[in-house]
Each structure stands twice: as C-alpha cells, then as structure tokens.
Design brief:
4 strands, 3 domains, 19 helices, Alpha-Beta Plaits
Length: 516
C-alpha cells in the first residue's frame, strides 16, 4: 500500500511538471514576441531621435506619435486597470486571494500597451509585464485544464516564473523570484511546476535570441580580497539609496494627484517630456540594458552622476504615470550606474586598478535590487545569469546581504508588497464560496515546532487538512505533533486566504508565543 502511495505522489508531480512545461512553452512564445517587438520598435524610435538632432522637423512627428501612444494606452488602462504598472503586485494579489483579473483581457492589453510604453523610450522595463503575461497564461491554462483553485495558483506561479525566465534568459532566477518574492516559502509542487515552466520558457527564448547573456560585459576579472572593504562601503550606500528609491516611488501618487487628467491618462506627462529626453540623450532611452553595456568603456565622473540623476528622475516620472511597464530593469540600471560611479571614484582618488570597475557595476546591480525588492537570493542569481559568469558569487552575496540589512534597519519594506497594499487599500475583500488550499511551512524559528495540533489556537475560516512530511502525507488529529520541515496543508475560502495566512504566520512567531 505504501508503494502505491508513493507512485501516486510521483504521478502527481509528473502531471504538474507537464502542465508547467505547457505553460512555459506558451509563455516563452508570448514573452519572446513581446521582447522582440520592444527591441525592434525601440531601435527604430531611438534612431528617429538621433536623426532629429540634425532634422528638427522630425520632432513634430515624434511628438504626435508620443501623444497618440499616451492616448491609446490610456484607453487600454481605462478599459482594464489591471494592466497598470509592472503587474507583479497584481500577481501577488491574485495568489493571496486579494485580487481577481480577467486573464484574456490582461493578456492582450498588457502585451500591446507594454510594447508601446516600453519601446517608445520611457524608462520602463519589460520584465514586470513579462511576469504578469506569464501569470495570466498560467491562469488561462488552469481553465483549459479545469483546475481547482489551488492548482490554478500553482499554474499562475509557474507562469510568473516562466515570464521572468524568458525576459532575462534567467530560469533559476525566475524560479527563485516566485519562491522568495511571491510565496516567501518552499512548496514542492510550486517549485517543480515553476522550474519546468522556467526551463521550457527559457528554451523558447533562446531560440529567438541565442545563447548570449542579456548583459554580456565581456571578461570580468575577479575582485581581489584587498578590495572587499570597499564593497562594504558600497553596500551601505546601496542600502540607503534603495530606501530612498522606495520612499520616492511610493510618494509618486501624491505628486500625480496634481495632474488635471484622469489617472488612466497620466501617461501624457512622461510622453510629453520624452521628446526632450530623446532629443538630448537618445542613448539613455528604454529600460537601460544598452546603457549598462556602454559602461564597459571608462566614463567621466560628472557624466555618470548626470546619467544617474536623469535615470532616477525620469524613471520615477515614467512609472508614476501607471503605464504598463516595470521597474525591474530600471532598478538594475540605476544599480549599475551607482557601481560605475563608486568604482570610477575609487580609481581616481584611491588608485584602484580601472579593470575592477566592471566588478563594482555587477555587484551594485544585485545590491540595489536586493535592497529595494528585499529578495537577495533572486538578485544574486539574476545578475549571475544575466552576466553569464559564476566568478562573482562571493562579492555578490556580500553586497546583497549588507544592502538588504541596511535597508531593513532603515525600515524599508519589499517594494512589490508595498505597491500591492496601495493597490488593494480601497478594495473590499470578497468572501467567496470557492475553496482553496495552501501550504504553510514549519521553519526552525516557528513556535509551532514540537506542538500538538490541539495546543494551537487556530484562526477561524480554516481547516488543517493534512501534513506533508517528506514524501508522506499525515492525516492530522488533535495529538499530531508538528515538526520542523512539515508543510501544513490548509483549506480556506478564497476571500479569507490573505487573512488566514497572516494570522497563522503571526500565531506561529516566537514573539507571539512569548507574549501569551
């Protein structure tokens, strides 16, 4: 009997791996076309801005194009507000049961709106929209497979993983992003399905774009131990600047309230300013990956500082308008500029070898993202996969960890969670009749470790169905003892999902137990 039980579990996992592969293939095709369209259209528009420097009359056509795009994308946003912004907060809201979206509407409107918003030259990234595109592919696939609510969330997660993998050619980072940033936990079915999606999506993306890393910076020397003390100072700076970024980004809605236009049409502000940015600095347009590649050549300190200020200010203006575009790549670009500025400063004033400036660029991307997104593991692996080198894991880890801690000490919160709270603050949580299950891990610091089920004051609106321990499922009763490594399978109503998750997390904390 036990053997048959294991076979059943294995079949379930294979079943989800196949489903994840299906989601990955579809997501890979859609995101690759999304990415390719942005690159091709972006090149054309950038060339037009370059030509306009000698043919100013062309600026009239560019202005008309920008205003048309602002109006057209505004209509898309008005028809479906769920396509606003990066899309990552919406995905997190879906998985927490706090938001519902029309998957097909978001799919085609985010696809078209994202292409025009990002390719036009605004300082927005393609990665957030790619994650949301993958998530709605997963949602649509769940309807095709007639999945349960719990299975739907697994497929949405796998689609999000596939979206990031295809956008950056970074399958491991795609998997880690889902586990670290979205779920904050490790579930066997989620990681298997998401990994299958990420790998297949990346394979499709490689067919379109080849094996070359997204940020191929050439040969990057290994940083000597004598320079590690500089990394500590850099990491502290990144943590502080990351905190400033979070605060400014979350303050943007108050600034945009002064714009005498409906929120859906706030895009007229950045699209109007884009004409000046594109005319004077055409090389800076877009998410920033081309700008990062240009940093391989030495740049003057004043120029780097100017680029940093330009990228920071206009990326805030671009994202604050709630257009379909993300902050993923713009954050990495700002991190690269901070690293370039710090490295060049060390060369000019402390005699550091110029060949190590690249190292500071690479580690700064990870540190800045780790501070803002509060996902250090994702930051480390993402930059590693984007650069295509494994020689910098130690400095990447050091900078990401310190930047994360500094931001945490300052009171910074994960940016996507903060954006989600702002998104749902005015929405009533519906009490849906649709049931769903989720897994809650017993970690070493959990107060539930060693307790019997009946000794815990469980929240309302939930039922502890079973406990997964290794490869076994344990039917629970009052004297079942919970241990580290257990996964509690909990049944609840979708409308109470977020409330129940937070309640259990609070009750399982060591602090909560000490206070009782």
């Amino acid at each position: 009997m036990k053997k048959n039980k294991h076979i059943k579990i294995d079949q379930t996992r294979v079943y989800f791996i196949l489903k994840g592969g299906f989601v990955g293939v579809i997501t890979g095709i859609i995101v690759s076309l999304f990415r390719l369209s942005i690159e091709k259209l972006g090149i054309i528009i950038q060339k037009m801005y370059v030509i306009s420097q000698t043919t100013p009359f062309l600026l009239i056509y560019l202005l008309l194009f920008n205003l048309f795009v602002a109006y057209f994308v505004g209509l898309l946003i008005k028809s479906d507000p769920d396509i606003k912004g990066s899309g990552i907060p919406q995905v997190e809201g879906q998985l927490q049961g706090r938001l519902t979206v029309n998957w097909f509407s978001v799919l085609w409107k985010k696809f078209i709106g994202g292409i025009f918003s990002v390719a036009s030259g605004l300082f927005l990234g393609r990665e957030g929209p790619s994650i949301q595109l993958g998530a709605v592919v997963g949602q649509g696939s769940s309807q095709l497979f007639h999945s349960t609510s719990s299975e739907e969330k697994i497929l949405i997660s796998s689609g999000a993983s596939a979206g990031l993998a295809a956008a950056f050619n970074a399958p491991i980072a795609g998997l880690l992003f889902v586990l670290e940033e979205i779920h904050h936990s490790f579930s066997p079915l989620v990681w298997l399905t998401s990994f299958a999606s990420a790998i297949t999506a990346n394979m499709v993306s490689l067919y379109f774009f080849g094996l070359k890393p997204v940020l191929s910076l050439g040969q990057i020397p290994s940083l000597p131990l004598s320079e590690y003390k500089s990394l500590i100072f850099l990491a502290i700076i990144l943590g502080v600047l990351g905190f400033i970024y979070q605060k400014v980004l979350l303050y943007l809605p108050k600034i945009y309230r002064w714009v005498p236009l409906p929120q859906a049409f706030h895009g007229f502000v950045p699209f109007s300013l884009l004409l000046f940015v594109g005319y004077f600095w055409p090389d800076t347009l877009g998410g920033g990956n081309q700008l990062i590649l240009q940093m391989q050549a030495p740049l003057p300190l004043k120029l780097i500082l100017g680029l940093l200020l330009l990228r920071f200010i206009f990326s805030m203006i671009s994202y604050g308008a709630s257009l379909p575009g993300g902050i993923f790549l713009p954050i990495l670009t700002l991190g690269a500029l901070i690293g370039s500025l710090f490295g060049t400063f060390m060369v000019q004033y402390f005699g550091m070898d110029p060949m190590y400036v690249k190292d500071f660029i690479v580690v700064s991307m990870a540190g800045y993202f780790a501070a803002i997104g509060k996902a250090p593991l994702t930051a480390i692996i993402l930059v590693t996969e984007m650069v295509g080198s494994l020689n910098h894991l130690m400095p990447l880890g050091l900078v990401a960890l310190i930047a994360y801690v500094v931001n945490d000490l300052l009171g910074g919160n994960p940016i996507y969670e903060s954006l989600l709270e702002r998104l749902v603050v005015h929405k009533e949580l519906p009490v849906l009749k649709r049931k769903t299950t989720f897994e809650f891990p017993i970690t070493p610091e959990s107060s539930l470790d060693g307790l019997m089920v009946r000794d815990v004051s469980w929240p309302k609106h939930m039922l502890l169905v079973t406990i997964i321990r290794g490869n076994d499922e344990i039917l629970t009763h009052g004297d079942t003892i919970m241990t580290v490594g257990d996964l509690l399978v909990i049944l609840t109503d979708e409308g109470h999902l977020h409330e129940v998750k937070n309640d259990i997390a609070l009750r399982s904390s060591v602090t909560a137990v000490k206070s009782t």
